[in-house]
Amino acid sequence: MDTACSFIVEDTDEIGFKDALKKMKKADKIVLAIGEHQMYSGEGRSRAKIVLPKTHLRLVEVAKQLNKPVIAVVYTGRPLELELLDQLCDGILLVWQPGTEGGNAIANLLYGKANPCGKLSMSFPYSTAQLPIYYNHLSTGRPKKSGDELPSHPSKMPFTSMYNDVKNEPLYPFGFGLSYSEFKLSNLKLSKKTMSRNEKITASVEVENYGKYDGKEVVELYLRDKFASVSRPVKELKGFKKIFLKAGEKQVISFEISEEMLRFYNQQMQFVSENGEFDIMISNGITTICDTFSLI
Known about the structure:
Elements (H helix, E strand, L loop, with lengths): L16 H10 L3 E6 L18 H11 L5 E6 L7 H6 L2 E6 L5 H9 L72 E8 L3 E2 L4 E10 L5 E11 L10 E10 L4 E9 L5 E2 L5 E2 L3 E8 L4 E8 L1
Parallel strand pairs: 1-2, 2-3, 5-13
Antiparallel strand pairs: 4-6, 6-9, 7-8, 7-12, 10-11, 12-13
């Protein structure tokens, strides 16, 4: 392995860039192993700025100027601020801090011998200043709609809970993850729209692999209590399934929803469910389809 720059976060030494540039000019595609050294993770290794080392970002900028595909293999022990990397790279493979067989696994993914199917267990922010950021947060009094454009001028700021200079949502949300194939969710159906406490509802959805490659996909079930006696999260993960689909194949999968899945601790610290409306969201981390049912 060639070392083009230091792993020290604040280091600015680019002494290895000259040799790295020679090798990159000869390559058809550029793969850069960047990110955190393993000693930045673990007990007593907290960081205030969860960013990539300066020289790593600079190396990506140098590689991009060659007008070749640039793939970043990112090592880390925590969510990082990757907005610039997202803009510059043609692909990002997040490998966390892999073990002794990590090299073989990474090579298999890069060469297409294996098809990625992992999903993020944590949200990755646009900016460190967004932290803490997590998928099951409480709603605000005037929530900003997802995907709303940032105001072009302070006078055009709406009276909503928002950042003025960055989106509210994360760069890569909890549950996000891409594949060499492409998957589509459709036809969400509920077995019934109302449920009593001793009944269950079945939610089914059609999953289609409309890409060129066989692959596995993770389908996630989220629920939201729309009206409760205490504040409830905007959504909660209640289940997931991983399925294998050949290219062009479709499959219907189902989730069973019971009253126990709707319970929470009320003000008296009783673990209860309350009658009312609930949103159901089925997602693959990229697209989400929704419906509503009631507990009576």
